[in-house]
Amino acid sequence: xxxxxxxxxxxxxxxxxxxxxxxxxxxxxxxxxxxxxxxxxxxxxxxxxxxxxxxxxxxxxxxxxxxxxxxxxxxxxxxxxxxxxxxxxxxxxxxxxxxxxxxxxxxxxxxxxxxxxxxxxxxxxxxxxxxxxxxxx
Length: 137
Known about the structure:
By secondary structure, the chain is of the alpha+beta class. It has a single domain (2-121), classed as Gcn5-related N-acetyltransferase (GNAT) (Aminopeptidase, 3-Layer(aba) Sandwich). 34% of the residues lie in helices and 22% in strands.
């Protein structure tokens, strides 16, 4: 298994992985555009894990100049509970730290609360001093 920097050409395979992993996704077109922009703006902090040239894990790391953000951490079902998610998360954290991030945030959708244990194991805690808000534009 290898971990490498994500490329836009990985999108189609990653999209299938994300759907299989149950991520909350936008439309195919919006996810494609989001992926292209995220990689363009953060070329060194988003990664894929491959086994025999097949993508088995992915994670976006984005830096906004102040904070790092983790998005779309997904691991193929057959690779879960083997440390791959931890490797991807750690690699992304290090890349974001190198970019200048002093804090990393992520969101967990309510339909995927089973991942809270994983993130807590890695030192993440519920943010109690903020309420996230969103707006579709």
